[in-house]
C-alpha cells in the first residue's frame, strides 16, 4: 500500500518502487478505471489483459448472431 497526496491540477506522484513493480515507465500511457470499489491505475496492456480475462468464457460473436437472427425473425413475421 502506498499513500499519495493529490497535488495541483490533479497531479499524483507514483512512488518509484510502485512504478517499477507495475511497469510504469516515463511516457507510457496509463488508464484510470473507475469502479464501484475505487479507482484503478493500469497500463493499456494490463487493461486489455483484464478485459480479455473477463470475456474469456463469453461468446460475443455467437450472442450477436443470435440477437440478429431473432430480430430478423421478428421482422419477417411482420
UniProtKB/TrEMBL annotation:
The keyword Hydrolase does not apply. Transmembrane segments: none annotated. SMART domains: SpoVT_AbrB. One of its GO terms (molecular function) is DNA binding. Residues 1-47 form the SpoVT-AbrB domain. It comes from the Bacteria. Keywords: DNA-binding. SUPFAM superfamilies: AbrB/MazE/MraZ-like. This is SpoVT-AbrB domain-containing protein. The lineage of its organism: Bacteria, Bacillati, Actinomycetota, Actinomycetes, Pseudonocardiales.
Amino acid at each position: 500500500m502506498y499513500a499519495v497526496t493529490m497535488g495541483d491540477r490533479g497531479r499524483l506522484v507514483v512512488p518509484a518502487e510502485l512504478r517499477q513493480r507495475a511497469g510504469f515507465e516515463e511516457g507510457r500511457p496509463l488508464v484510470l478505471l473507475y469502479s464501484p470499489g475505487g479507482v484503478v491505475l493500469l497500463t493499456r496492456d494490463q487493461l486489455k489483459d483484464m478485459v480479455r480475462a473477463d470475456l474469456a468464457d463469453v461468446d460475443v460473436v455467437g450472442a450477436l448472431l443470435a440477437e440478429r437472427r431473432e430480430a430478423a425473425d421478428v421482422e419477417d413475421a411482420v
